Each structure stands twice: as structure tokens, then as C-alpha cells.
């Protein structure tokens, strides 16, 4: 029996200056692609984060009124580790984000504010490529981000944004989806991997509620496993993968 051919991942395009990452919760980016973000900011690129929620429903032992502000603080500290200082929260309710015009409008407004060439989001499909079911929040935000990349350039879809001083932005060239089972491209994780570890470790309250393992051991093992597995399709280098959609 012959082994199935491993399809190589292509390098993610790097001829851009500004990126905007849009996800549902604090820690979504740290579990998926902060090693890539560290490499981008090292290269002098501007990266901003937009989170639909504050992750207030993420820790069973903490009520949302306590959990939300705590996770917001941890997210800002986490972003700073990889060189990101612009972090916004849209205020949607954790766990019950609804896909629809309101979410698309909020994300389109963020795209108009930040004017990125690259937009990054998380897996918008029903599963993680097998039998592991994705969460409704991830699906809603990922799908809305793909749609909002086009909405941001059309002044007639959300005309109230122009009234708010947010002129259309047609400059999004790609949307890169992290955590996709249909990955097409990758970024070398080696230069940013240690900072990715420290970035995820900033979500200590969440990690301590999630696992009985030592947080650092858990984080290092998780990121090493995922980047090494991706690297098998990227010349043997630890890597972060993306499914790339062009516009």
C-alpha cells in the first residue's frame, strides 16, 4: 500500500501592510495563529484585533459580570506579547452570537476603521474537519467576517456607516481562515513560537479552569503538536495554516 500524497501548503502572501483579525472570543487567536502574528509585527506590519465578545460565558466558576472584564484584560495582555496594541470588543453576547446583518455591520465598520489588506478569522465551518463539532459563535463570526469583507466596500449595504464617517473600504485583498481543515497556505511559526506560548499563557484564568495540567506544559504541548503537524505540509518547518480566500 502506498501512502497518500501530502499536499504542500503555499506561503501566505506577504505583500501587505495592514491586517485585521476578527474572532469570537478571547484566546481564539492564541490557540490558532499568534505565532504568525508575531512574525508579521516583527516585519513592521500593523495588526489589530476585533473580538465579537468578551468571553464572559467561558468560565463556569465565574459569573459573566466578573469573567468578561477579566478575560478582556487577559486578551489585551496576550495581544501585547505579539506586538498588537489595538484590541476592540464589539459587545455581542458570548455563546449566542447571531449571524445576520447586525454582526456583519459591526465587522464591516471595523474593517472600514482599520482599512486592512488582509483579514484573518477562525474556522467558519460546522466541524474542525472530522467529528468534532464547531461552536455556533465561531461559525457565525467566521461567516460574517467573510461577508463583511465585501460589505465594507459597498456604501449602499450599510449607509449609516457613511453617516458615522466610515467611508467604504475596498482594499481587502484576502481573507485568511485559521483552523480550517481545507488549509491552502501557511506561515513559518519558528520565529514567533516562543511568543505564541507566552501569549496564550496570558489567558491564565481560562487555562486554569480548562485543564488540571500545568498551564505552561499544556500550552507548549498543544502549540508544538499543532505547528509540527502543519509543518509536515510546509517543508518540515513548524507552521500556522490558513485557508486563503482572495477578493
Automatic annotation (TrEMBL):
Transmembrane segments: none annotated. It comes from the Bacteria. Pfam families: PIG-L. Keywords: Zinc. This is PIG-L family deacetylase.
Amino acid at each position: 500500500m502506498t501512502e497518500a500524497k501530502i499536499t504542500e501548503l503555499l506561503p501566505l502572501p506577504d505583500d501587505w501592510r495592514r491586517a485585521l483579525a476578527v474572532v469570537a472570543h478571547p484566546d481564539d487567536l492564541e490557540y490558532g495563529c499568534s505565532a504568525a502574528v508575531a512574525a508579521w509585527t516583527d516585519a513592521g506590519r500593523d495588526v489589530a484585533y476585533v473580538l465579537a465578545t468578551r468571553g464572559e460565558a467561558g468560565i463556569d466558576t465565574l459569573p459573566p459580570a466578573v469573567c468578561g472584564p477579566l478575560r478582556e484584560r487577559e486578551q489585551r495582555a496576550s495581544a501585547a506579547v505579539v506586538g498588537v496594541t489595538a484590541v476592540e470588543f464589539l459587545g455581542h453576547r458570548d455563546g449566542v452570537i447571531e449571524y445576520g446583518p447586525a454582526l456583519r455591520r459591526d465587522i464591516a465598520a471595523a474593517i472600514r476603521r482599520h482599512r486592512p489588506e488582509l483579514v484573518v478569522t477562525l474556522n467558519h465551518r460546522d466541524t474542525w474537519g472530522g467529528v468534532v463539532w464547531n461552536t455556533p459563535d465561531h461559525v457565525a463570526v467566521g461567516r460574517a467576517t467573510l461577508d463583511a469583507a465585501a460589505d465594507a466596500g459597498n456604501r449602499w449595504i450599510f449607509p449609516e456607516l457613511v453617516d458615522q464617517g466610515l467611508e467604504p473600504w475596498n482594499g481587502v485583498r484576502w481573507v485568511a481562515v485559521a483552523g480550517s481543515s481545507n488549509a491552502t497556505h501557511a506561515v513559518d511559526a519558528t520565529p514567533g513560537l516562543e511568543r505564541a506560548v507566552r501569549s496564550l499563557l496570558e489567558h491564565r484564568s481560562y487555562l486554569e479552569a480548562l485543564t488540571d495540567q500545568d498551564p505552561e506544559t499544556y500550552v507548549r504541548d498543544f502549540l508544538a503538536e499543532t505547528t509540527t503537524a502543519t509543518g509536515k505540509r510546509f517543508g518540515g518547518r513548524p507552521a500556522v495554516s490558513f485557508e486563503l480566500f482572495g477578493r
